[in-house]
Amino acid sequence: MRHLIDFGDLTRREWDELYARAGKIMDDPGSYIDACRGKVMASLFYEPSTRTNFSFQTAMLRLGGTVFGFADPSSSSVAKGETLKDTVKMVSGYADVIVMRTPWEGAAKAASLYSHVPVVNAGDGGHMHPTQTTADLTTITRLLGKVDHLSVGLCGDLKNGRTVHSLIKALAKFEDIRFFLISPRELAVPEYVRAFMQENGMPFTEVTGLEAVIPQLDVLYMTRIQRERFVDPLEYERNKGVYVLTRRKLERAKDKMLVMHPLPRVDEIAVDVDDDHRAVYFEQARYGMFARMSLLADLANQPRLDRTPAVEIGTKPVCRNPRCITRTQPYLPPLVKKNGGVDCCAFCDAALT
Ligand code: NCD
What we know:
Blueprint: H1 12-27, E1 40-45, H2 51-62, E2 66-70, H3 84-94, E3 97-102, H4 107-114, E4 119-124, H5 130-144, E5 151-155, H6 162-171, E6 178-182, H7 191-199, E7 204-207, E8 219-222, H8 233-239, H9 247-250, E9 258-260, H10 281-299, H11 325-328, E10 336-339, E11 342-345
Parallel strand pairs: 1-2, 1-3, 3-4, 5-6, 5-8, 6-7, 8-9
Antiparallel strand pairs: 10-11
The structure holds N-carbamoyl-L-aspartate (NCD).
């Protein structure tokens, strides 16, 4: 693995190694205090973040490395109209690894074409968020002992929730997972995710109600309705507050079920659930730091490329997704990939037809 853009970039073996290292770090943090000594992480956050930004920063500091970057693009040259390509080329001259979060889908992949050092996708619009998945899988493995043979309920905004898309991609690498996709119909998983699940033989049931399926679940993964991604404010108004997990609803859940959430929470988990032994979302955030330490210990120590491969410049964007990075950065090559036999944009996964 050279970059982490999409969980599909990791083989199951690479994930097992990453998790094993995270386990060693948790059990004996002292043995990793110099793992990134002398290394520098660039942190480019074009979108708000608390956990992801802080956990990456503290991960690097705990490995003996240092961090620079911005959490507000208006303080960088982006505000003067610099392209993503130029920013990345330059930043990759200063740093050993780049961690970036953007509102544009496919932006981390675009950056990886031009970077001399590994790029980590810390969230690209409503598309993917693979390092949250490393936190999620670490949590499940530590607390349930395994990820295979589980019933997993994903609840909330499955259309715009990038953590859900990445988690589904990752769970394709495990055995016998049954999915309950719990969402309002208009916030169901995007077509490319559904095609991925069908192509990989991942059994799933789509439902709109949470209560009826709770008793069957080993993991309930709650998500926020992603207000900032709605083009139509009325669609948000219709769907906000649609799921609220309460103590009463939890009464029918298995005693060992995990209640997870990538956070931030708005109102989808009542505060009184926090004291239930099944609520693990704050631990999940802490596991995320260890998972990111494990990732950085590998990526920040990779050799820097002297030259990046030549990229054939596109002339006009072929992708019609208005949030795709190719729409705002038109020099990008028109890369295509297949999802479930359909031609899709290789940056944002949207179907090209
Ligand atoms: C998530 C994100 O940014 O996608 N948060 C996180 O990284 N922990 C979830 C969200 O914002 O709802």
